[in-house]
Every structure is written in C-alpha cells, then in structure tokens.
Amino acid sequence: MAGTEAKKRAAYMAVDKYVQNNQVLGIGSGSTIVHAVKRIAERVQKDGLKVVCVPSSFQARQLILQNKLPLSDLDQYPELDLAIDGADEVDNDLNLIKGGGGCLTQEKIVASCAKKFIVIADYRKISKCLGEKWKRGIPIEVIPKAYLPLTRTIAARFGGVAELRMAVSKAGPLVTDNGNFILDWKFEKVSDWKTVHCSIKMLPGVVETGLFIDLAEKVFFGMEDGTVEVRERPSQ
Ligand SMILES: O=C(CO)[C@H](O)[C@H](O)COP(=O)(O)O
Name one GO molecular function term (predicted). Predict the structure, then answer.
C-alpha cells in the first residue's frame, strides 16, 4: 500500500476514535495531518460535530480555514483537549523526531498544552531507535544570529555535524514561521535522548529541538497491508 493511503487510514482511525463533540483540538503540520483535518471536517458536516481548532503552524492555520473549521489560538484556549500531529520518526518508546517541515517549536507548544497528544504516521516512520529511518538529522530551531556559533558548539559537544537548512525556491536559509533558522543535526551516536535534548536546549540561541520525548500518548501507524497499528507509550 502506498504511503499516502496508509497515512489516510491512520488519520481517519485516530480522528474517529479520539475526536469528540465540544473538544478544543490542536492541529499539527505536514502531509498526514491534512487527512485528519479532512476527516474532522467531514464529521462536522455529516454528524454536526462541534470542535474548535488551534493551529501549530501557518500551514495548519490555512488547513483549518480551507476546511471551514472554527479557528482559535492558545490565548483563547490555553488548555486543549487533544492535539494530533504527524512525525518524521517514532521509536519503540514513542519518542519522536519532528520538524521535517520546520514547524517543531509551535508543534511542541501545542502538543504540550493538550491533555492528550496523539500521533498519526505511516509504516515508514517506525523505528527501534531514533535515527534509524530519518536520515536528515534532528531539526533544531535557532535564533538567526546564533546559528554559526551553534553549529560549532553542537558538533564539538555532541559530535556529528549541524547544518543550516536551506530554503527551496528561495536563495538562502529556510526561515521558520517564527522568523528563525533550522539546524539539522546529523548525530553520530546518542544513547540518552532526554539528556541530549535538555543539553542542546540550554545552549544560548536554541529555541527548540525536534526531539519530542515522553510527549506522545498513542501513535496510529498506517501499515503496508492496509491495517492500522496502534501503539501506546510503554511507561503510561
Ligand atoms: O514535524 C512536522 C513538521 O514540522 C511533521 O509533522 C512531520 O514532518 C511529518 O510530516 P508528514 O506528515 O508530511 O510525514
């Protein structure tokens, strides 16, 4: 089964199992979340479902508006019932790499404001250890003025190489929705992701990392054979 259909099946199952009437929903970014938003919109139209949606990026905001869903923000709703998002990779403990689309900071804020955070992905994102599948490095959002010293510090302290992500169809670096740059850290060996995340986050100029540790409660994987596999975080 193609990845797109697998993403759709995961998204539909997650929405049908978790989205309920009168919820405030955090909406993630990427290509998989598009299917989830479409399903939410279908249920609003067919079943009269009432929800309010809080976006995690410019893309998510557009998606909510295009699907004619009620749009709000964290000023109006600092606590969300549920956040749904995609991921670039998911390990055995449901730790995630996110930020392939450059939206990691707002995605993490939205996820951390939700009572439940669930992830939708296709089978190509499943791994035992982070970095097994996603080879583009750990996305790290940084303040532009700090990018060069940070590339050097990250490589010196943690090994590997941190590269400035360049824009496509625009000269120069990719600029995030928050006006920052992204470093993609191609690491060599990491055994404790929580410690690495905390240490990187402490470096002056780092805004956020794409390591989502102990955040996801459940992941819905659309599998190659057409089924959807649901995994729960082991420590819960
Ligand atoms: O973290 C993200 C964007 O910053 C996305 O959720 C992640 O890249 C997954 O995207 P897709 O659903 O297209 O595979």
Answer: ribose-5-phosphate isomerase activity
